[in-house]
Amino acid sequence: MIKNLISKAPWQAVKNSSWGTVHQESFGNRSGYVICYNNKHLELSALATVIGQPFVPQSEIDANAALIAAAPELFGIVEQLTNVTTTDEFDELLEKAEQILHQLNSIKPSKELSLL
C-alpha cells in the first residue's frame, strides 16, 4: 500500500537558487525548489526538486512545487474519503480539501515573459 511507502512527515517546498551569477545575468533568476521533509532524525531531507528554468514563469514553478508539497495531505484526504460513513466526516474532509485548494489557488500567475 502506497501509504506505507511514502515519507511520513509533512512535505515542504524550500525555495532555492542554484543558478550561477553569469547565468542569472544572461537569463534572469528563476528560483527552483527542493521538496523536503524531516526524517526520523529530524534532519531536513530532500525528496524531489522543481527546477527553475528560464522559459518557465516563476509562478508556474511556484505552483508546481506547492502542489507536489501538498501531495501527501491530498492523498490522505482521498484515502479518508473512501471510508467516510457520516456526513460530518465528509464535511470535515471537504473543509480540509477546501483549505488546501485555497492555499494552492493563492499562487497568482505572473505576467513575466519567457526568457528564451
How would you write the strand order of the largest sheet? 1-2-3
Let me know the average pLDDT: 87
Q: Percent of residues in helical segments?
A: 40-55%
Largest sheet: 3 strands, antiparallel
Q: How many β strands by DSSP?
A: 3
Query: Which overall shape is indicated by the principal axes computed on the Cα atoms?
Result: flat
From the alpha carbons, calculate the radius of gyration and give it in angstroms: 17 Å
- Low-pLDDT segments, ≥5 res: none
| Tally of alpha and pi helices | 3
**Alpha-carbon distance between the two ends:** 43 Å
Determine the structural class based on helices, strands and strand pairing: alpha+beta
Report strand %: 15-25%
Q: Could you give the order of the helices and strands?
A: EHEEHH
Give me the secondary-structure topology.
Layout: E1 12-16, H1 21-27, E2 32-38, E3 44-50, H2 58-81, H3 87-105
Antiparallel strand pairs: 1-2, 2-3
Helix pairs in contact: 2-3
Word description of this protein:
Helix 2 packs antiparallel against helix 3. A 3-stranded antiparallel beta sheet has the order 1-2-3, with helices on one face. The protein is 43% helix and 16% strand. The protein starts with 11 loop residues before the first strand and ends in an 11-residue tail after the last helix. It is built from 3 helices and 3 strands, in the order E-H-E-E-H-H. It is α+β, with helices and mostly antiparallel strands. The model has no long low-confidence stretch (mean pLDDT 87). It has helices at residues 21-27, 58-81, 87-105, and strands at residues 12-16, 32-38, 44-50.
